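tool_call: predict_structure(chain=1)
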Amino acid sequence: MFSGIVEAMAPIVKIEQEQGNKHFTLRNPFAESLSIDQSVSHNGVCLTVVSYDAATREYVVTAMQETLHRSNLGELKVGDFVNLERSMLPGERLDGHIVQGHVDQTAVCVDVRETDGSWFYRFEYESSRQMIERGYYCVDKGSVSINGVSLTACEPDVQGDKGYVAVCIIPYTYDNTNFRFIRVGTVVNLEFDIIGKYVSRMLQLTGQGK
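tool_result:
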């Protein structure tokens, strides 16, 4: 489990394709503290460390075909920066919100604006009644994870088969995550609030969501 508070960004130094899987080699400030089988969030995707080299500060994670299809990891290139967060420790403060590292789908940036010291982003994603019933939607002032960053949703909307959500980024988040590389057309990872998913599913099972 994660909190959506990004610890660092890491550059991708190598990508290897093996059948439907991709092996990503990354370098980051806490590589020496990693261990094999440890879970780390990469742009909001929970991946397992399969090898590491303390001397080069590099480690390897593997994304399977389903993960590549559902997230933006399949579009990454050598040199791209990835948001990283290690899993939460028991007893730590939950500074963001509950993030599982299970990306629901991708979204596309449709607007970026600097707004007097902060940054405004608007994203578009595929939507349908069935997806909303599963909890794949945002509510105003609710929580959403975008590229693994815990954010407050604003201006949520659904128009036909498209959903929309906007977020505002403070300068610290802009400087210390890969939000600073996001432009119109950039694909990002979305994880909707797990509490909203449970509530939506419960309403469907009890017949109250019809």
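agent: The chain has a mean pLDDT of 92. Proceeding to next step.
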